[in-house]
Design goal:
The complex is a heterodimer of chains A (205) and B (426). Chain A is α+β, with helices and mostly antiparallel strands. Helix content of chain A is 20%, strand content 37%. In chain B, strands 4, 5, 12, 13, 14, 15 and 16 form a 7-stranded antiparallel beta sheet that branches. Helix content of chain B is 29%, strand content 36%. Classes of the chains: A alpha+beta (205), B alpha+beta (426).
Chain lengths: 205, 426
C-alpha cells in the first residue's frame, strides 16, 4: 500500500545508468551535428519553410485516408484500404496535353481501347478547384507505370481540368483514384468531397 | 504452522486460481480500451493494480504476484507437504510439470529479448529493435564517428517520467556529463504518424500550450493522445545536459527516432569539461580535441551475436489483388563479416541460431505498388525458456498417464477380485 501511494508522486531524482550495450558492427551510422529541426524532420530550417505547406492549394482529406509524402508530381498524396491498396492523388502538369490525350492514357492503363474525340462530350462534370472538371470512371485491369503485370478487377476515378491558363502558362489539374473495384466504389463520396474541397490557399509570388 | 498450512493448502490454491480467472477476464476486456501492451502491464505484469467496479476503486493483486504465490503454494502443498509414495508418483510428476511451466513464465518475462529486423535485399544487420519500448542511448564517437558501445536507459527507467511533473537526472561512470530528462511526452504524433505534437513556434496558437512546455529553436512539445496501438506512439522529451558542477550547457529536445537513420543530439565535451551542443557557434579553439557524444531517444535495441544478410525476399499475392498469400526470405548468417550458412525463413519455418529465433513476420513498405522495392520484416526473439512450456507439457502428460494408468490397473484389479468373489459364492 505504501508503494502504491509512493508511486502516485512524480519522481524527481538521480539515477545511475548501469546498462551498457555493445553496438552491432553492422549498425547504421548516426548523422551527427544536426540542428534540432533537421534532427526531427530531416529538413533544414530553409527546406522546412518551402515544403508541402507552401503548396498554393489546400484540401480536406477524409479521415480514413492515409497521407503519404508528397512528391514533385503529386501535391496531395493518399492511400486507403486495409493494406493501403487504394491510392488517390492531386497533381498539376505544365502544358497539360489536353483532355483526350490524358483520358486515353488512363484508358490504356486500365487495359481499355482509346476513344474518339466526339465521345468527350458525354463525360459528366464534377466540381473541382476553379469550377468543374470532367469526371472519368473506368473499370478494367490496372497496370501502374513500370509494373510488369496488370491488377485485374480494378477501378479508376479521375477528374481532369485540362489546359487552364495560369499567367503565361497552360497547366492541367488532375485528381486520380485507383484501387480494387469494391474499395474504390466505397470511396465515391470521399472522392467527390475531396475534389470539391480543393481550393487555392494563397497566390503564387 | 497454521500459516504454513494455509500457504500450502487447497483454500489458497482455490483463491489464487479464482483470482487468475478473474484477472484474465479483466485483462482481456481492458485490451479493448487501453490496448494490448498497457493491459498486459497493468493486469499481467504487476504485483498490485487498482481497478474500478462501477465508481468504486479496488486494489487487486496482479497476475505476477498471483502466479508467484501459486508457485509457492504448489511447491509447498503438492511437492514438499504431499505424501510421497510409489503408489502415486503421477501426481507428483504432473505438479512438477506445472511448476516448471510457471518457472518458464518467470524466466521468459525477465530475460526475453525481442524485436524486429527490417532488411531490403542485399542489406545486412546485426541489431534488432523493439516496436513498443523506447530507450535513451548515450554513446561516445571516435574521430570517424563510430561507436563501440552505448549507455542505455531502458523503458523501465523512463516509465516514471510519463507522469506529469516528473524529472530525473541520469549519470554514469565514464560519462563526462549528466543530463536531466523532464516533461516526457509518450506520444507527439497523430494517427497518420505526423508529428503534430511538435509544432513550430509560429503555429503554436493552434495548440493548447502544454504546462511546463518550452520553446526551443522554434519548436515545442505538445503531448498528443496516446494510441492504444503502442507501436504507433512517438515519444519526445526535453533534455538539459550539465557538467559535473551541475551547470546547464545544452538545452534541447529529443524526439523518438527512426532506428535506421539515427539523428541524435550531438554534444562536444572539451578537455576542460565544458559541454557544447553541436552545431554551435560557441565552439572555441580550446574545445577542439574534445570528445563527441550523442544522445538518442530510440526504440530499444539489442545486438545479436551474428549478422543477417537478406539475399532474396519473395512475395506471392492472391490472384488479381495486392494481398499477400505467402512470403518468405532467403538469408545468410553473417559471422565476422563473412556470409556463412544459408537459411530459408517462411511463415512456419523460423531460423534458429545461438538461442535466437527469427520468424517471418511481415513485409513492407505499407501500400507498396507492384513495382516498388520491398523489405522483409523478421521478428527476432531470444527466450531462454523458449521450449520449457513444451517440456513442461510433456512432464504433465507423463504424470497424468502414469496416474490414470495406475487408477485403471487398480480398477481392473478390484473388478477381477470382485468377479472372483462372485464366482466363489454358491
Amino acid at each position: 500500500m505504501v508503494a502504491l501511494v509512493a508511486s502516485c508522486k512524480p519522481v524527481n531524482d538521480r539515477k545511475e545508468i548501469k546498462t551498457v550495450r555493445k553496438m552491432g558492427k553492422l549498425a547504421p551510422a548516426a548523422e551527427l551535428g544536426l540542428p534540432l529541426l533537421e534532427r526531427v524532420s530531416g529538413k533544414s530550417q530553409e527546406d522546412a519553410g518551402s515544403g508541402a505547406t507552401d503548396i498554393p492549394f489546400a484540401w480536406d482529406a477524409p479521415d480514413d485516408w492515409q497521407a503519404v509524402p508528397a512528391s514533385a508530381m503529386r501535391m496531395a498524396n493518399f492511400t486507403f484500404g486495409e493494406s493501403a491498396e487504394g491510392q488517390c492523388y492531386f497533381t498539376m502538369l505544365r502544358g497539360g496535353g489536353g483532355l483526350l490525350l490524358n483520358l486515353n492514357r488512363w484508358r490504356s492503363q486500365m487495359g481499355l481501347d482509346p476513344i474518339e474525340g466526339e465521345e468527350l462530350a458525354k463525360l459528366p462534370d464534377k466540381r473541382f478547384l476553379f469550377g468543374n472538371g470532367k469526371f472519368i470512371e473506368l473499370d478494367g485491369a490496372f497496370k501502374p507505370m513500370g509494373a510488369s503485370e496488370a491488377l485485374s478487377d480494378y477501378k479508376m476515378f479521375g477528374v481532369i481540368m485540362p489546359e487552364m491558363e495560369m499567367g503565361e502558362m497552360k497547366v492541367a489539374f488532375f485528381v486520380k483514384m485507383t484501387g480494387p473495384k469494391q474499395l474504390v466504389e466505397s470511396q465515391r463520396e470521399n472522392f467527390d468531397a475531396f475534389c470539391a474541397s480543393l481550393r487555392i490557399k494563397k497566390a503564387r509570388q | 504452522m497454521r500459516f504454513y498450512n494455509f500457504l500450502s493448502g487447497y483454500t489458497l490454491a482455490v483463491i489464487l486460481l479464482s483470482l487468475l480467472l478473474a484477472l484474465t477476464y479483466f485483462g482481456t476486456m481492458a485490451q479493448v480500451e487501453v490496448g494490448l501492451y498497457d493491459a498486459s502491464e497493468k493486469y499481467f505484469q504487476s504485483l498490485f493494480l487498482i481497478d474500478k467496479i462501477g465508481p468504486v476503486p479496488i486494489v487487486l493483486p496482479g497476475v505476477y504476484l498471483v502466479s508467484a504465490l501459486l508457485f509457492l503454494n504448489l511447491l509447498l502443498g503438492a511437492i514438499i507437504r504431499a505424501r510421497k509414495s510409489w503408489k502415486r508418483p503421477g501426481m507428483l510428476i504432473a505438479h512438477g510439470g506445472i511448476l516448471y511451466i510457471l518457472l518458464a513464465g518467470f524466466v521468459a518475462f525477465h530475460f526475453t529479448e525481442e524485436g524486429s529486423m527490417l532488411l531490403y535485399e542485399g542489406d545486412r544487420a546485426d541489431e534488432i529493435y523493439n516496436l513498443t519500448d523506447w530507450s535513451i542511448e548515450v554513446a561516445r564517437h571516435d574521430a570517424e564517428g563510430k561507436r563501440e558501445s552505448a549507455y542505455v536507459i531502458g523503458e523501465e527507467d523512463l516509465k516514471p517520467l510519463w507522469k506529469k511533473g516528473a524529472r530525473r537526472t541520469f549519470f554514469a561512470e565514464g560519462m563526462p556529463f549528466e543530463f536531466e530528462i523532464y516533461s516526457y511526452a509518450r506520444n507527439i504524433s497523430n494517427s497518420k504518424g505526423q508529428l503534430t505534437g511538435l509544432p513550430l513556434e509560429k503555429d503554436r496558437t493552434a495548440f493548447t500550450v502544454f504546462e511546463g512546455g518550452e520553446v526551443i529553436d522554434g519548436l515545442a512539445i505538445v503531448p498528443q493522445e496516446t494510441s492504444i496501438t503502442r507501436e504507433a506512439n512517438t515519444p519526445a522529451t526535453y533534455i538539459k545536459v550539465k557538467d559535473s558542477t551541475g551547470k546547464v550547457h545544452v538545452h534541447s529536445i529529443l524526439v523518438g527516432a527512426n532506428p535506421f537513420a539515427p539523428r541524435p543530439l550531438t554534444v562536444e565535451v572539451a578537455a576542460s569539461g565544458a559541454v557544447v551542443q553541436v552545431p554551435s557557434t560557441n565552439i572555441t579553439e580550446t574545445d577542439s580535441g574534445g570528445e563527441t557524444w550523442s544522445i538518442d531517444l530510440t526504440r530499444s535495441r539489442y545486438t545479436l551475436p551474428f549478422g543477417v544478410e537478406l539475399e532474396k525476399f519473395e512475395k506471392e499475392d492472391h490472384p488479381g489483388t495486392a494481398r499477400a498469400r505467402e512470403y518468405s526470405s532467403d538469408v545468410y548468417r553473417v559471422d565476422n563479416g563473412e556470409a556463412t550458412e544459408k537459411y530459408h525463413i517462411s511463415m512456419n519455418k523460423p531460423m534458429r541460431y545461438a538461442g535466437y529465433t527469427l520468424y517471418q513476420a511481415s513485409w513492407g513498405p505499407p501500400g507498396a505498388k507492384p513495382s516498388d522495392r520491398l523489405y522483409t520484416s523478421l521478428a527476432v526473439s531470444r527466450n531462454p525458456a523458449d521450449q520449457w512450456p513444451k517440456y513442461g507439457t510433456y512432464v504433465i502428460s507423463l504424470g497424468m498417464v502414469i496416474h490414470f494408468m495406475q487408477k485403471l490397473f487398480a480398477y481392473l484389479r478390484r473388478s477381477a477380485r470382485s468377479r472372483e468373489k462372485k464366482e466363489v459364492k454358491p
